[in-house]
Specification:
426 residues, 41% helix, 14% strand
């Protein structure tokens, strides 16, 4: 049977290496979530576990039994009548038509941005450095929301003159506040408002000036967690859900195009692996030119096949040592007949006679030694020992019968009489 590989080893190794590289790349880029332009894996989203992310507050709300939705499309349609839409730290480079429709939900919490971060080289889902944004850039978000006001910062947390939420936050470093005549203070100090409200008959918009109380680095403070939960519950009805809009961070949900997903990065890498697998399958199964080769026969005919199969049967049964023993004994008897050994002699006398004849003819192999080695095969059955004994036995027979090449000797009959110590009496 032909057991050769279908593909050349080098080609098969190359295909496997390409498939492994594509698989690792798909997992790597898929885990980082950088497949779509504008998606910020370390920024202020509920998918981000960096210091600037909001995965922590989403997890806290979920553990409290509140329904949390991380929306990548149709955020307004996912709101319950008494739910809250959270638009957290939108990009100030957005167009007004992208942001303003979200702010006309019934209950909206708009969180202003404050910092930007740089991705860590050691942990791609973390940030290793953050920078506070200019106040003028943050005020642009207020303008996008249609609110006139300014952003101010104070070096430390002020004493709150008004707090309709209840728990007080704990903000370290510069505290970001807003000043606007269009907003009603909800949580405020003399320097400005931390939370301001814009309310009409159809909607209620709250603006959180400093995002530190919601971000992962601040939610670890018990007072911040209590403040954040109380803030959202003050906007949310009894059975309302909390919808975090992630379209403002570049997350877009693919809708109704499963085939298109196969050609989107990083899923296209998995598609390429599938194409490679199909190509290998076709290469292995497609028809060849010419008639197919006949299959090899199950058993070979002739003497060679018979001998080979018989040898395999003996090998399987473990009879090699017995066969070699009987081979040695048969050769010794055959040589005795050919050299006309003493008839009726005991085995020991016959072996001694053969050794005398062998010495007379220059044979350096002893018949007695061969028989001793054969009797010892029960304890040594390795193939090398068996083959060595069989070769030595065959050489002994050839040399004692035909003579050792280059060894001068008398006639065969003279050697026999010499081995017997002279002729027999007449």
């Amino acid at each position: 049977m032909n057991t050769s590989s279908l593909f050349a080893p080098r080609m098969l190794a190359a295909w496997l290496a390409i498939a492994v590289i594509l698989g690792v790349a798909a997992l790597y880029f898929g885990a980082l979530g950088e497949g779509r332009p504008g998606r910020d894996a370390i920024g202020p989203s509920t998918f981000s576990r960096s210091a600037l992310g909001h995965a922590g507050i989403a997890d806290v709300l979920r553990r409290l039994g509140i329904t949390v939705v991380k929306s990548r499309s149709e955020s307004l349609g996912k709101l319950r009548p008494d739910g809250v839409l959270v638009v957290a730290e939108p990009n100030f480079s957005m167009q007004p038509q992208q942001l303003r429709p979200l702010l006309f939900a019934r209950n909206v919490l708009l969180v202003l941005p404050k910092r930007v971060g740089r991705r860590s080289r050691d942990r791609p889902d973390w940030v290793d450095q953050t920078t506070v944004m200019p106040e003028t850039s943050i005020a642009t978000v207020l303008t996008l929301a249609g609110i006139k006001g300014e952003v101010v910062r104070v070096p430390q947390m002020p004493s709150w003159s008004r707090n309709d939420i209840g728990p007080a936050p704990a903000i370290s470093g510069p505290v970001q506040l807003i000043k606007s005549a269009e907003l009603r203070p909800v949580v405020a100090a003399d320097n400005g408002m931390l939370v301001g409200e814009l309310r009409t008959s159809a909607r209620r918009l709250w603006i959180l000036a400093d995002p530190d109380v919601l971000e992962n680095h601040g939610i670890g403070e018990a007072s911040n967690a209590a403040f954040a939960v109380a803030l959202i519950n003050a906007l949310r009805g009894r059975n309302g859900n909390v919808v975090f809009d992630e379209t403002v961070h570049g997350y877009v949900e693919l809708a109704g195009a499963p085939w298109q997903l196969l050609f989107e990065f990083p899923f296209v890498l998995a598609t390429m692996q599938g194409v490679i697998a199909i190509g290998l399958l076709l290469l292995a199964t497609m028809g060849r030119f010419g008639a197919p080769l006949p299959p090899p026969p199950a058993l070979e005919s002739g003497k060679h096949g018979l001998i080979q199969n018989t040898a395999k049967l003996f090998e399987f049964a473990g009879y090699q040592a017995v066969m070699v023993q009987r081979y040695v004994q048969a050769i010794v008897r055959d040589v005795g007949r050919q050299l006309h050994g003493p008839a009726g002699a005991a085995e020991a006398d016959a072996v001694a006679w053969l050794d005398r004849v062998g010495r007379a003819r220059g044979v350096d192999i002893s018949c007695a030694a061969l028989l001793l080695r054969a009797s010892d095969l029960d304890r040594r059955r390795d193939a090398g020992t068996l083959a060595s004994l069989a070769r030595d036995t065959y050489r002994w027979k050839r040399e004692i019968v035909d003579g050792v090449p280059g060894h001068s000797r008398r006639h065969r009959g003279d050697s026999r009489r010499s081995a017997e110590g002279g002729g027999r009496p007449g």
